[in-house]
Model the fold of this input.
Amino acid sequence: MTYTVHVRVVPRAGILDPQGQAVEHALHALGFGAASKVRIGRAIEMTVAAKNADEAREQARKMCDKLLANPVTEDYEMEIEG
Amino acid sequence: MTLRVAVVRFPGSNCDFDSLHSAQRAGTEAYFVWHRDTDLQQADAVILPGGFSYGDYLRSGAIARFSPIMPAVQKHAAAGGPVLGICNGFQILCEAGMLPGALVRNGRLSFVSRPVTLQVEQTDTAFTNAYEAGALLRMPVAHGDGRFAASAETVRELEANRRVVVRYVSSAGPAKGEDNPNGSINDIAGICNAQGNVVGLMPHPDRAADPALGNVDGMGFFTSVLTWSSVAATR
Done:
């Protein structure tokens, strides 16, 4: 089986995110005053071969811990489609 | 016997010659090692130079840290061997867990390339023992991801154990405003491990180590290793 894995990596809460701040200012300047707490991260999409969704999730988690996210400054979430 | 210094080249290293030249000017036998090699060729010390290894893809240093040469670098460091990471080299050392914390996007988002003033706070390291404690140095920074970030606990531990090696300052005291080029926590420019044999810094001593450049403030980073106890003892 193959599963599509979507990983979202975001800067950890409490770590200054200057990109998020700059985009928030730009949104406010455009009149979108409703926007706040803007955080900018990255989205990673991949296909993972696995026996089942749990195994795909476990493999993706290992990939995040080892390479895709930096545990010092980032948090991640993932979704599995399959 | 001349001290051997391995300068590791990654795809995207661009300060490899600066580091090689500086180490040679310091009187060491410096040579290049390719990132796909697995052997440091009896190096006494290792330099991870500046640049943009793997195009800074994903995060600066994140891919380089898994290069085939890195297990040898980690083994060398674990045995007390000196390892210096300059700029991208510092980012690689943090990604590899050889130094704590991480280097993230500059606080003002822009790439910063200009001279800064540093104060040497820790001289009991393999790369700063040639300096007087408190010495002020001028040298360039050139980075987009140079803001040192770490958990509050890690920062406390670094400060308590005097592992901040160099700090951004103004010529007249603590850094104000632009004196800290990237928003680094506590104005931290460089740190070391607990043993002082692994040092990483964002500024470029390799670009301030030749009289032809009008500045030799960085030379001590390359001469210090000659007098570092663990290295000197084996000569």
Notes: The mean pLDDT of chain A is 95.
